[in-house]
Amino acid sequence: MNRFGSVLQTNWDWRAASNFMFGGTGSGLILMTAAASYPDSPPLPLGLQALAFIALGLGLVSLEIGRPLRSIHVFFHPQTSWMTREGSVGVALFPLALAGLMLNIPALVALAGLLGFAFLYCQARILLASKGVPSWREPAIVPLIIATGLCEGSALLILTMAMMGIAGENGWVLFVFVAFLAFRTYAWMNYRNKLIAAKAPAKTLSILNGIHPLILWGANVAPLVLLLAAMFISSMTIGFACIAAILTVLGGWYMKFTIVARAAQLQGYSLGKLQKGRPKIKPPVRRQKDKFVF
User: Fold this and answer.
1) Higher pLDDT, 117 or 1
2) I need a labelling partner for 235 at 20 to 30 A (CA). Which of 105, 189, 219, 290 fits?
3) Is residue 9 part of a domain?
């Protein structure tokens, strides 16, 4: 199969990529914050931080529209559009989270955390639904986007708790962080291998191969090693965990920016292998029940 016309899509730029970067982080963070604090209400800075990331992502992607006020049209197609579903989940998430945080109602914060996961899932399905871009329509992108959001949420939760001096209150978060990182490592390798097997555009594979060592070793394996060391070296637990968290978040942002804004080549056209010579004409098939045979 000879491919041509595989050019970079121009509908989404860094502003759209920012929604996946910051919105994914915020949705993972509100979920992890709700889980870490339940059955109590989380500290106000933790919850507001998560909402700020989601708002930043949505705000930047709205600027990509020539007339930002037209972004209201995103809510008109819930039956067909995952972008509409993402926006609708976001509209419900903010008042629930704010009410739970301000009024100290853990049940509302927990519900907001579940909506955060729904928001993250919608983001993954938005990419999957873009059938004209091979690097987005690959089904393996769904677990990759979800795993990345969960990793970033866990990482920022650990960082924020360390800065607030409450890092030791939820030791299980460290173990969950390790599990999410292992999941993201597998998801990234599976995603890349599936694109190679599907013969994605050469430019797409070249870009993803270029960032592969950094994503695999710098954003996944290195944080995993640091977290495992933090579990056995008590004097370095917070320091190693914070370094791992920073590498995880920055690596996740870079990976999502690359997939959305740089490795999003369009499918283009495909031609089968042409054969030389005249076409072979097969004789008609004679059947006993045919009344006329030509």
Assistant:
1) 117
2) 219
3) yes
Show the CA angle centred on residue 29, arms to residues 28 and 35, nearest 5°.
Answer: 95
Average pLDDT, the chain: 87
Residue 81 lies in a domain: yes
For the residues 96-125, what does the mean pLDDT come to? 95
pLDDT at 82 over 80: yes
Domain that holds residue 25: 2-271
Place of tokens 């509409």: 84
Tokens 């559009």 locate to 81
Cα(199)–Cα(2) distance, rounded to whole angstroms? Answer: 11
Rounded CA separation 7/224 (Å): 36
Identify the burial level of 76 via C-beta atoms within 10 angstroms of its C-beta, where 0-12 means exposed, 13-18 middle and 19 or more buried: exposed
Q: Do the beta carbons of residue 222 and residue 278 sit within 8 Å?
A: no
Summarised one tens digit per residue, pLDDT across range 197-252 is: 999 999 999 999 999 999 999 999 999 999 999 888 877 888 999 999 999 999 99
Size of the chain in residues = 294
DSSP state of 277: S
> Collapsing DSSP states into helix, strand and coil, what is residue 265?
strand
215 neighbors 181 (Cβ within 8 angstroms):
no
Residue 151 maps to a domain: yes
Give the chain's domain count.
1
Q: Is residue 283 in a domain?
A: no
